[in-house]
């Protein structure tokens, strides 16, 4: 799932300081799971903003809501009737949700309330780790189910590099070397032949190098 | 024991401080409270194992927020004491009341007074 972290409140104060009616809109999807932009975080941010502006003696209406998903039209549409009650929206959804809101609510300033970071998983409550870089052509079948694009700091396809030391990446002792993990896992699976077979250069056009991407699945299109 | 503590301290009972969330403390301040003290059991003595440890982390998070918005982190504090420490409770209640008095009223009320608006009751229920 998409992982994000809350933006510093000062940054958000700066975005909304000139607007009188502000809606703080969360998303019940990914950002709820990583505790950055769900209803709970909406309430905390809205309350903090009210405390700040009331302290400054500035009257502002700061309202709260959270939508099932901000990246799907049907969940954004119900707000269309009410959106003109607000001068601006702070979206706590990931960058996708916030942008989709801006696309749909024309003429309404939309500000991001979180920094969207990566696609990852929950390691333990409060700790999220990157696992996928959405390169568009999954190769983990030959790397023991561990992605070298996401887990190797240099995205090497025929690793490890010379910096791998006792299982740690040279970038940081706290980062496991992706290729060390791959090697250990392939050994466990009895598939070290995969490790020895060279991997051809990757076609990065399916990744960001090919420009913004799009998926069309005709069988489900209306 | 008939111990005295300042009458302006309003007690809100919760089953465990683990129930106290960030938003509860912020809303108390929004409603005009001058300060909030969270009184949990001694560390290692939580009946629900780690409620008081969680509460401490949340209080720290609220302090971080208050610092960011220039509200003063010192208005919020966490203390640990057991149910048998009535004397200590009264002492802490006096201590935090004094500290909050020094900090002055809730900045929201100050702003309201400056703009001539009526002040809200400084309680949170
Ligand atoms: S040490 Fe391992 S993870 Fe780090 S850059 Fe080299 S191969 Fe990649």
Describe the fold and architecture.
The complex is a heterodimer of chains A (222) and B (125). Chain A has 222 residues and is of the alpha/beta class. Chain A has 2 domains: 2-118, Response regulator (Rossmann fold); 133-199, no CATH class. Chain A has helices at 9-16, 30-33, 39-55, 73-76, 95-104, 148-151, 178-189, 192-196, and strands spanning 2-6, 21-27, 61-67, 88-91, 110-112, 114-124, 127-132, 168-169, 172-176. A 4-stranded parallel beta sheet of chain A has the order 3-2-4-5, sandwiched between helices. In chain A, strands 1-6-7 form a 3-stranded antiparallel beta sheet. In chain A, β4 (88-91), α5 (95-104) and β5 (110-112) form a beta-alpha-beta unit. The longest helix of chain A is centred in the N-terminal third of the chain and has 17 residues, at 39-55. The two termini of chain A are 27 Å apart. The relative contact order of chain A is 0.12. The mean pLDDT of chain A is 97. The longest helix of chain B is centred in the middle third of the chain and has 18 residues, at 51-68. In chain B, α2 links the parallel β1 (36-40) and β2 (76-80). Chain B has one domain. A two-stranded parallel ribbon of chain B has the order 1-2. Chain B has 125 residues and is mainly alpha-helical. Chain B has 4 helices and 2 strands, in the order αβαβαα. Chain B is globular. Chain B has helices spanning 22-30, 51-68, 86-103, 107-114; strands at 36-40, 76-80. The site of iron/sulfur cluster has 15 residues of chain A, from α7.
CATH topology of the largest domain in chain A: Rossmann fold
Number of E-type strands of chain A: 9
Radius of gyration of chain A: 22 Å
Instruction: Give the % helix of chain B.
Output: 40-55%
Which range does the strand content of chain B fall in?
5-15%
